[in-house]
């Protein structure tokens, strides 16, 4: 199994500079990722803002979460990957008239479209809701050699030292990171930590994801949409 060594700092600066503003270290205070919550208020909000078909898509997401609790983790990965990969792709400019916008799973299902960040983060929160431990999941920025641009995927680690499996909207197949020679990792994060990439299978922990202002704002928006704390 091959791995590609790289200098993550040089790579990030030279090849993925447009993504770095997302990771400015602006905020203190840690916010762990929570699972998705469903309610009549949420379903009504979906229908009011996006229509009846969007409401039904969120009902289907709720059913997926409830059914998935009893599945093996490999089946959870397969079901969630397939559920969100059926959503059509478009850029943030086209969808939101913004350069970088992180849509929640409900916004994704509302417009039935997403970009790479939206797929990865939606899968992340759905798997947590199905009982997958947060420390097994990392939202991962990579360089796609096929697209020749920055890209985001979700990595799943069966154990701390295991080779991760990659959930990617570019392919239906969930494959080990070592087989994804088309992807070069840059850095990854979850609700607790931030890593710089060492190679396709490893990362060096460099701080807490609470320091990521975009991540904090995203979780606050998601909480508001679920009606928690209103």
Description:
The chain is of the alpha+beta class. It starts with 7 loop residues before the first helix and ends with a helix. It is built from eight helices and nine strands. It has one domain: Roll (C8orf32 fold). Helix 2 (40-50) runs antiparallel to helix 3 and helix 3 packs across helix 6. It has helices spanning 8-15, 40-50, 52-68, 73-85, 92-96, 105-111, 116-129, 213-226, and strands at residues 88-89, 113-114, 137-144, 149-156, 165-167, 175-176, 183-189, 194-197, 203-207. Residues 1-31 and 197-201 have low confidence and may be disordered. The strands form two sheets. It has a seven-stranded antiparallel beta sheet with strand order 6-5-4-3-7-8-9. The chain has a two-stranded parallel ribbon with strand order 1-2.
């Amino acid at each position: 199994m091959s791995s590609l060594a790289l200098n993550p700092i040089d790579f990030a600066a030279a090849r993925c500079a447009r993504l770095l503003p997302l990771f400015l270290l602006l905020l203190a205070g840690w916010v762990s990722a929570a699972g998705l919550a469903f309610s009549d208020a949420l379903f009504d909000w979906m229908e009011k803002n996006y229509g009846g078909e969007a409401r039904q898509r969120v009902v289907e997401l709720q059913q997926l979460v409830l059914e998935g609790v009893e599945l093996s983790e490999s089946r959870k990965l397969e079901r969630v990957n397939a559920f969100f990969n059926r959503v059509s792709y478009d850029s943030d400019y086209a969808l939101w008239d913004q350069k970088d916008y992180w849509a929640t799973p409900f916004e994704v299902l509302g417009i039935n479209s997403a970009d790479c960040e939206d797929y990865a983060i939606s899968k992340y929160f759905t798997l947590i809701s199905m009982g997958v431990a947060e420390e097994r999941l990392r939202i991962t920025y990579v360089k796609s050699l096929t697209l020749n641009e920055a890209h985001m995927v979700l990595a799943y680690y069966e154990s701390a030292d295991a080779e991760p499996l990659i959930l990617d909207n570019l392919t239906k197949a969930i494959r080990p990171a070592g087989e994804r020679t088309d992807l070069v990792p840059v850095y990854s994060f979850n609700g607790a930590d931030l890593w710089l990439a060492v190679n396709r299978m490893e990362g060096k922990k460099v701080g807490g994801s609470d320091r990521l202002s975009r991540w904090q704002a995203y979780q606050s928006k998601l909480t508001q949409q679920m009606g928690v704390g209103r």
